[in-house]
Design brief:
- There is one protein chain.
- The protein is mostly helical.
- The protein contains 4 helices and no strands.
Length: about 140
Amino acid sequence: MRLYLTLRDDLQAFLWILGVVISLGTLALGFALQALIHDSDTDDAQSQVSQAVWVYGLYYTALLALSYGPAHVALLSVGRSIRDTIVGGTPIGKAEVEDWLRRRQELDGLLQLGQNPVSNIKAATLVVSPLLGILLGAFVKQ
């Protein structure tokens, strides 16, 4: 169980760092493209740069969401199997059911199995970080 918790935390940290790096890359791309067309006063060039940065950011946002989703589902699956192995199957007697449910809920809390990916602020930041980079770049531009 300790190994599961360590690996879960390491995976979340890795994905969060990846999101931050991609966000900074999106921001840097926007600044670089703005610098390249700064002398160009044509609206067409500025529009193309803006579209390229949005496509880049949306692409990496989708990539992060599609990589974080399956990883989160796999973590939940492994956590549930650990919980079920420790707690065991549903007891037959009524008196045992309360104790079984209490132990099951304790392990759910310890393994964070009831937490959805959107409620975790790190996960939410990870997935939308490229879009946040785009918005920051647009704000700084003005």
